[in-house]
Amino acid sequence: MHKNASFFTLFISLLSLLFIVVVVSSCTSRKKRTAYTIGFSQCVGSDLWRKNMLDEMKAELSLHPGVNFIYADAENSSQKQITQVNKMLGDGIDLLIISPNEAQPLTAIVEEVYNKGIPVIVIDRKTSSSLYTAYVGADNYELGKMAGQYVGSTSKGPVNLLEIMGLPGSSPAIERDRGFNEGIRKFDNVHIQTKVYGDWLKQNAEVQLLKIKSTLPGINTIFAHNDVMAAGARNVFDSLNLPKNVKIIGVDALPGASGGLQMVADKRLNASLVYPTGGKEAIVTAFKILNKEPFSRENILQSLVIDSTNVQLMQMQWSKINGQQKDIEKQQALLAEQEQVYNSQQEVLNIIVITLVLAIVFGGLAFYFLMENRKINKSLEAKNNEILEQRNQLIEISAKAEVATEAKLNFFTNISHEFRTPLTLILLPLEDLIAQTKNISVQSKNLKLIHKNVIRLLRYVNQLIEYRKIEYDKLKIRATENNLVPFIKEIVESFNDMAANKNISLQFTSYTNSVMAWFDVNMLDKVIFNLLSNAFKFTKDNGSIKVSIKKSTGDDEVLIQVEDNGIGMTEESVSHAFDMFYQADSYSYKGSGLGLSLSKEFISLHKGDLSVKSKKNQGTAFTIHLRLGDSHLLEDEKSTRKEPIENVYEQEKIYTIAFEDSPEEQNTLAYGMVKEQSVLIIEDNTDLLSYLTSKFETQYEVFGTSKGGDGFNLAFEKVPDIIISDVVLPGLSGTDLTNKLKSDIRTSHIPIILLTAKGSLEQQIEGMHSMADLYITKPFNFEYLNASVQNLLKNRVILKEHFTSDIITAEKLPISKSLDKKFVNDFSGIVEQNLSNDKFDVDDICQIIGISRVQLYRKVKALLGCSITDYILNRRLKKAKYLLNNENYTISEIAYMVGFSNPNYFSTVFKAKYDCTPSEFKKKTLLLVDINK
Q: Which string of DSSP letters, residue by residue, matches 187-212?
């Protein structure tokens, strides 16, 4: 009995503890922190202006979570605003922020709130009483004065001005008008022709202007008290077809699609004065007051003029601020989510506590379910591990497939480049030889024959992509009926010279002189050539190669066999012989790994087969099985036009050129007399590099290298006049090299020509995006390349002439590259700022710009065509000439003003430049002025 009572007492105690914990946790999670209640009654300004003020307040309030913010818009009604303030008093606000619609009607209610001990912040405009806690707003008088001074200072000639004022009797309208009149007082050419009240609204301003439209043609300048009315004025002038050069100045310069900033940017307004909303400052001041911190009672906001000279900068700053505000809002959203998660977790914790207590009370039942739950968890964990293992396997398989796909794409890109480079080396000297031997018939004939085969080889490079077409079933054969024996024999005979050179016995046999079969001559010749070239590759000197045509036992197909006694293949190599991109590691000859795979596909398109038998160190035999007749072919696979059998003996060079000895690498630096201009050539193929060096070294000083990194360093070391670079380079690619050089102020002026085998439109666009000046695809004509080099250098000379004109301004510089333009602007600006400093020299410029003395000399020489000293001297004399023409300074004063420490030396230099002394020049100027009068 005692034990039961003790258990019952423990049970009651646990339940009580559970109840207390749940209640405390629930109260804690639901407690809200509403420290202050701030009321804001708004009434002043356009919809956009009010929206921006409210947005600023909300942005600042986001830094003070837990504040209860009551907002009311009186919609330009003083009576409605009074009602709203009374309601806020009933809601128990801790502080009132008010933007009065009118001064006198709102004075009483503001005084009532203030006398009740509630702080009042008056924003934008004051009431008729001084009973308020703080004021936040701009000085409308100073703003109007600033507008008047801007109109007067930026206008030339008579100014007939129309002023569009705000609401009659409102303090901003009165103060802005008074300040504007004060601002234009000192400008005799500015006259206010008429004034109208637009009540701060666009529609009202348009109505008032249309009432006086007869006087508008004489108006050339308009000052509106806000941007909304200014926009209305522009609409009226456009609707009446009045001149568009009327200058319109507004006030507010608010951001946004319809704000003053955008209207200035769109040139609908000539200028707008920033009128800060004060939303942020009002909230900051409110919290200082509520937190009993020191604050300023009068918070006057500053303004400035926004026109075409700074509107873009202001828009950029606003976009950045707007972006930061959005980031803050996102962070607040995340915090709200975290708070929601916390509340959820608190509820879960409560449930856990309840469950825990119940688990103690009902221990036995809970223990049973716990054991069952563990069993289920173990089962789920095992299944989860199995799923994870399968997922990892899938990821590994996917990665391997991705690597294989990437290898295929890289292959087709690289092989195209490797083929086109030797083609360029053949075509360039070949075209030179053809031009030199036009009158020598034998040599001309042979060279044209070579040229024909080079073009044919170029066609084969393009046909390499046909393999991709086979993969997608897009390549179709064009079979014609031909005699197979002479076709094969002619191909075999084209290898006789190579067989003789290697002392290899080359034999051709056929069971008959005529075997008529249907096949595509342009596919089968590639297959035969590929098999024969492979046989010669892997057959040592003094070996033997046999080509035979046999008839099958069933008389329904013909067999073409290419057999050699070369090094043979292992069983593994035989099993992978027709795999795409496969290359045996033991072979000393490396190809593309595509020839046999492509050959088998070509034969498969003929509904035939290609097989191989081989033994290591004994030899290899490839056998082509071609079906006789045409019943196995579709109608669209047969051609009614007889395809000509090409002369194929020349193709031997195509398949053997890779094994001929290449000429020794020549020194890529051309030595000799230093030329006036220099060329840097970066080409990974040493033969092409040597050829281009030999062609260009007669006209230019040539620097050459085969590596992108070395070329990058040479560009900074030599600072050449032009760079010719391949795109595919070891280490640093041509496009990356171009990007780096064009992005560096030391080399951005150097023209760059990219040579590449990547000839697609997308690849050419990519090359031009790298800021290259010209993009030439291989193979190319040397005369075209040479003419392009001369043209780019000639254009550079023309740019120098522009740069060295009498007046150098950013608007007149015909510079296509932004870095060159920036350099010239910075350089000329530094010189202009220091003309009066007689100790100013080249080292000062180097220190300011941040480049070495040598690089600065070369850069200025390349862009301006003169030395730095000559440029500075020329600018000093030009400024002295201007001062002599337009100012009343003495000769000595002018000499010191343009950086000459000795007036006598100044006179000497001036006379050497203009053939007269400064005094004589000034007398001539005065004489001309008198004559003109």
A: -TTEEEEEEEE-TT-HHHHHHHHHHT
Residue 401: both structure tokens together: 């497939």
Amino acid identity of 423? L
Look at the pTM and tell me if it is higher than 0.70. Answer: no
Which string of DSSP letters, residue by residue, matches 519-587? Answer: E-HHHHHHHHHHHHHHHHHT--TT-EEEEEEEE-TTSSEEEEEEEE-SS---HHHHHTTTSTT---TT-
Kind plus residue range of the DSSP H or E element containing 626: strand 619-627
Pairing of the two strands 134-138 and 120-123: parallel
Query: Which run of H or of E encompasses 89?
Result: helix 78-90
Tell me, rounded to whole angstroms, the distance of Cα 574 from its chain centroid. 50
Q: Cis omega before residue 779 (within 30°)?
A: yes
| pLDDT (mean) for 874-896 | 85
Q: Summarize pLDDT for 683-722 with one digit per residue, the tens.
A: 887 768 888 898 898 889 899 998 888 999 888 887 788 9
| Helices 202-211, 227-239: crossing angle, 10 deg rounding | 40
What's the mean pLDDT when you consider all of the chain? 80
Q: How far apart are CA 46 and CA 44, in angstroms?
A: 7
Confidence of residue 653 (pLDDT cuts 50, 70, 90): very low
Q: What's the one-letter identity of residue 309? A: T
Percent of the chain with pLDDT over 70: 80
**C-alpha pair distances (Å), 126 with each of 101, 145, 175, 924:** 10, 19, 12, 63
Beta bridge partners of 95: 38
The H or E element that residue 97 is part of is strand 95-98
Closest CA to 299 of 320, 278, 315: 278
Characterise 866 by phi-psi region: left (phi > 0), alpha (psi -120 to 50), beta (else): beta
| Separation CA 626–CA 606 (nearest Å) | 7
